[in-house]
What we know:
- The protein is α+β, with helices and mostly antiparallel strands and 250 residues long.
- It has helices at residues 87-93, 107-115, 119-136, 147-159, 166-173, 177-188, 192-210, 215-222, 227-238, 242-248, and strands at 13-19, 22-26, 31-45, 48-53, 56-60, 66-81, 96-98, 102-104, 138-140.
- It is globular, with a radius of gyration of 19 Å.
Amino acid sequence: MLFEIKHSNNNHYATIRIDNIICVPHCHTSYELLFVTNGRIAANINGKEHIVSGGECIMILPMQIHSYNTIDNSTVEISIFSCDYISDFYNETKGKEFKNPVTDSDSIDSWILNKSNNRFEIKSILYKYCARLMKNGIREAEKSNDDLSMKIVIYIQNHFKTNVSLKQMAKEFGYSYNYLSAYFKTRFGCGYAEYVNSFRLEEAVKMLKETNNAITQIAFESGFTSTRNFNNVFKKKYGISPLVYRKTQA
């Protein structure tokens, strides 16, 4: 997603704060440690839902397909870091998953992770939560979320700004269009176009907030084929036009 590291860089570490987080299923090669400081969210990891409340955190392992939805008005603090940032833990848990990826958190820790410039202090806190989650138990990663789901997610993440079609993806993957269409709806709970447009809308919202680019430019740079299509999809999702949305962010 827009705020996450999709490709692991050596010793890469970044943080972000988000209010009322909502995002579609996606994956990346980095770890993600999410602290809920207020409210409650639903985190879905490889098809399993976990409720995370204020005072708790959840860790996403590399290449786990995950999504978030806010249940109650929420604020989250997220730390995203590459595998080699905590290499000992990565080497020990590669190919495994947590029995329970949720644990209690200490409020001071999320603050330090967002404010500290001391990598040793940051790593000590990250390892602290690795240790807590290890106590919940680890096991071999389940194969129910097969390679096809991951291939689909990565493909769309890398191509949503282009005019990518399900037929094109089916051809590249070696599946029939009908099979992949049915698989997609079953696995992701929505149609292909809706899912792709969710990525495009996130990209558009980011540009509406952070740039002065014209609406037409934002539409095409986000992957929409026309301004009319962009306006219709945006209004269906947010209830207002992109122009009105931009004015509310001023």
